[in-house]
Amino acid sequence: MIAIGVDVGGTKIAAAAVDMTGSRSAARTLPSPKDGHELLDRVADLILVVASDAGERPVGVGIGMPSQVDFSTGYVRGSTNIDLADVNVPEALAGRVTFPVVVDNDANVAALAEQRAGAGRGHANIVMLTIGTGVGGGVVIDGAPARGGYGRGMELGHVTVEPDGPPCQRNCPNHGCLETMVSGTAIARDAGIPAPDVVAAARAGDARCTEVLHRAGRYLGIGIAGLVNVFTPDVVVVGGGVGLAGGFMSDAAEHEFSARVLPSNAGTPIVPAALGNDAGVVGAGLLALGRFGG
To answer: Cα separation of 42 and 50, whole Å?
Structure first.
């Protein structure tokens, strides 16, 4: 039994066939267009291609989106890093996609993947942060994603860690969010070069780039301490395209975390994600298997 998992990001859309163990086919990808309607057209394109390649009929489709999603209906109220708002995604896809569709926040599905098939396997309670263009977050409690009272998920990247910090990105009105201080966008802003180049320069011994990453790591530790004090997870998983930035953020994050976390939570491990860029696709597929797999 398989489902199609789709991961929608600010720069690309990925999709693959996923089974109950979290195994997946090679992901198909397309660039993410700026226009929301065109983006949904490309999501439909990928679903149809992956379904054709799969060799068996999927039981359904799961989609993770960087959006505030009403989980019960798949209605996207707004998005931070893509231009998509006020649309029921399953209804919008129904003209082209014949499989049942379930939609969730992208960080929720990534957290589900890591809890079921990745770094959080064997733990019922995890907090996951995904650090890339922005910062997403997902919480799994007793083996199920926590989505809040309205089913919209956890916007952990928009917890304030520096009240006098820079304004946040796109549609967030806040200043000094975790996303504003830790994301790849923030690292590039502070260093003046793209985040991957910052990591490469730090590896080559560049003191300024190393300091930028240490500063981001410090804010990451502040954020993690607050989240652990609230959710008391078994483990914190950090993933995404930036993640722990090749280890340059981890020491500073651990130091700040240790200084700020409640003593009863001090032993909570902070570990790198195991599934890499596949977490969103795997989690979305597992979500659909859980909903439609019988």
So the answer is: 12
pLDDT of residue 26: 87
Q: What is the structure's pLDDT at 2?
A: 96
Give the chain's residues under pLDDT 70: 150-153, 170
Residues 70, 151 contacting (CB under 8 angstroms): yes
The pair of structure tokens assigned to 32 is: 């993410």
Task: Give every CB contact of residue 262 below 8 A, 6+ residues apart in sequence.
Answer: 228, 229
Tens of pLDDT, residues 94-131: 989 999 999 998 889 999 999 999 999 999 999 999 89
Compute the distance between CA of residue 217 and CA of residue 248 in angstroms, rounded to an integer.
8
- Cα(244)–Cα(252) distance, rounded to whole angstroms? 10
Which amino acid is located at 86 in the chain?
D
Ramachandran area for residue 143 (φ above 0: left; ψ -120 to 50: alpha; else beta):
left
5's CB contacts (< 8 A; 6+ apart) are 15, 16, 17, 18, 24, 61, 62, 64, 109, 280, 281, 282, 283, 284, 285, 286, 287, 288
Q: Which residue has the tokens 């590896």?
A: 203
pTM over 0.85: yes
> In whole angstroms, what is the distance from residue 293 CA to residue 20 CA?
9
Residues 6+ apart with CB under 8 A from 171: 78, 79, 80
Cβ atoms 239, 128 nearer than 8 A? yes
Cβ neighbours of residue 136 closer than 8 Å, sequence gap 6 or more:
66, 105, 106, 107, 110, 129, 130, 156, 157, 240
